[in-house]
Amino acid sequence: MRIVVLGAGESGVGAAILAKTKGFDVFVSDMASIKDYYKQMLADYHIPWEEGQHTESLILNADEVVKSPGIPCDAPLPLKLKEQGTPVISEIELAGRYTNAKMICITGSNGKTTTTSLIYHIFKRAGYNVGLAGNIGRSLALQVATKNYDYYVIELSSFQLDNMYDFRANIAVLMNITPDHLDRYHHNMQEYVEAKFRILQNQTDDDAFVFWNDDPIIRRELGKYGIHGRLYPFAELEAAGLSAFTKEGKIYFTEPFAFNMEQEALALTGKHNLYNSMAAGITANISGIKNDVIREALSDFKGVEHRLEYVTRVRGVDYINDSKATNVNSCWYALQSMKAKTILILGGKDKGNDYSEIADLVREKCVGLVYMGLHNEKLHDFFDGFGLPVRDVQSMKDAIDAAYAMAQPGQAVLLSPCCASFDLFKSYEDRGEQFKQCVMAL
Questions:
Q1: Do the Cβ atoms of 172 and 210 come closer than 8 Å?
Q2: In this predicted model, what pLDDT tens digit does every residue of 278-289 receive, in sequence order?
Q3: Among 179, 193, 310, 421, which is least packed by CB within 10 angstroms?
Q4: Helix 428-440 × helix 396-406 angle, to 10°
Q5: In this predicted model, what pLDDT tens digit does every residue of 71-97 receive, in sequence order?
Q6: Checking phi first, is residue 252 left (phi over 0); if not, alpha (psi -120 to 50) or beta?
Q7: How far is CA 61 from CA 10, 47, 204, 219, 371, in A?
């Protein structure tokens, strides 16, 4: 059987190695150049590859194709494969075939990386044999090929969910659904929503579904799906049937084992992190982890890089790296958490954004805006009428210099871009690292 892998990043190389270890004829093809690190991994397993092109004669003869989540389903090659009836799957789908580990899967427009990291932190603290995978850490397929874990905690993007068919999440966690990646989903919000709900598609009555009960889209969609897993909803305010809620400064977890902890004891602050902590606590509770271990782990978690990451204070101005805010709702949470008047750095590759969601917070919290991107027309059209000083920049150094010139002691500079990074940067991590380097150079 011949398996072709499209894309030779973390996901693709992991899938290729897993397929090779299972005895398949494997070929890897990437339109871009492949990093030397991944070339060496492919060489170690004697896997042939090509870069800078897709040779159709070497791809269209596959029995099955594993597609990188970064390649759209309606790109020319996936469409040709679909037309000729060749199955196209995700790396996660492939990996799920070769492990009996319990799968704890987290998705959502915002909060999934923090929640995934937090669940992994609790499971490690409890001494569980657990791997961290998906959109974070090493690829699931590579770990299935080379490790032997009892649990995997997996962050899943909508792109990864698109090509999953038989994969089963034993615990599915859905944080929220807000507009994101609409450029990938034909600017159709319902397509994006349905991609997120694929996380539930193979659950059985033995499985669990953890979700934010106050999300209007989740509430609307719940009735449309034949959900088999047991429901574990959480919300800020107490109500019947909730698995977690807050009351008088405490978080209450109700099932399967009831316990509570002081909100002030949480390592992570802000309302969005309250929800992240609730989702993680419920997931650990369902998995049989002791209450005192959950409390302890929720109290000492260190947070996620590039997510509301405090960098330093320069001449009385705090600099905060929220480069992971690649959509408008994520920026909304960041602005909501700001105590000081703020210079907001935003912009990048627009994904069909509607900035009206943050309009009131920008008026309330911001004293200046820095537009960072190759195409800032949409930002100008929306925000220039607010009467705030604005600057256009096309590099991180210029963004920091502009913000530094605007900011007064006692204020803050927040990088929370609302947009993807690919116009000026390699990734949101690259954008965040450049922010930190430029700030430290002030």
A1: yes
A2: 999 999 999 999
A3: 310
A4: 50
A5: 888 889 999 999 999 999 999 999 999
A6: beta
A7: 24, 17, 35, 44, 47
- Rounded Cα gap, residues 194 and 143, in angstroms: 28
Smallest CA-to-CA distance from 153 within 195, 192, 125, 184 is with 125
Please tell me the pTM assigned to this model: 0.79
Instruction: Give the sign of the dihedral formed by CA 273, CA 274, CA 278, CA 279.
Output: negative
User: How far apart are alpha carbons 76 and 82 in whole angstroms?
Assistant: 10
In this prediction, residue 182 carries a pLDDT of 56
Contact 347, 379 (CB under 8 A): yes
**b/e code 11-31 from CB counts within 10 Å (16+ = b):** bbbbbbbbbbbeebebbbbbe
d(CA 96, CA 112): 20
Residue 266, judged by CB atoms within 10 A of its CB (0-12, 13-18, 19+), counts as buried
Q: How far apart are CA 172 and CA 104, in angstroms?
A: 6
Task: Tell me the pLDDT of the chain averaged across its residues.
Answer: 93
Give the number of other CB atoms < 10 A from CB of residue 412.
21
What are the domain boundaries of the chain? 2-89, 93-300, 309-440
Domain 309-440 has CATH 3.40.50.620: no
Alpha helices, DSSP H, located in 22-111 = 36-44, 56-59, 76-83, 91-96
Find the length of the chain.
442
State in words which class domain 2-89 has: alpha beta
More confident residue, 272 or 413: 413
Is pLDDT of 435 > 80? yes
